[in-house]
Amino acid sequence: MERSLYERLGSGAGIKAIVTDVVEAHMNNPVIQARFLPYRDDPDNLAAVSQQLSDFLCAGSGGPEVYSGRSMVETHRGMNISAEEYMSATDDIMATLAAHGIDEGTRNDVLAIAYALKGDIIRV
């Protein structure tokens, strides 16, 4: 039996570590860092957002965690995210997964999910 995406990403602890590194990558990415750098000055909000993202990824990949946050459309409404920003964020995610030793098949599965959410994120 094939392992779930959740298991292939390292379960809860692995996903949390990935999220931490993705957020850091976003803060260092010149295309999107302006959207993320304010979190450095608000560690409580950073922790809350990181936990929501971790729960979203855990629940969405087959884990037992429950995501109780807003939908992708609600979360990104009014942010006017461009295709360039979306692709830059996706590149950060893919690079972080590779840095965590996540295999290519699993990275492709995550990429497919990211692309499925694209319409809910860009310019909503």
From TrEMBL:
> Where is heme bound in this sequence?
H76
Q: Name one Pfam family in it.
A: Bac_globin
Coiled-coil portions: none
Q: Which cofactor does it need?
A: heme
The record's annotation in SUPFAM superfamilies points to:
Globin-like
MF terms per GO, please?
heme binding; metal ion binding; oxygen binding
Which PROSITE patterns does this UniProt record tie to the protein? Answer: GLOBIN_FAM_2 (PS01213)
What InterPro entries does the record point to? Globin-like_sf, Globin/Proto, Globin_bac-like_CS, Hemoglobin_trunc
Per UniProt, the keywords (alphabetical) are: Heme, Iron, Metal-binding, Transport
Q: Name one GO biological process term.
A: oxygen transport
Protein name listed in UniProt? Group 1 truncated hemoglobin
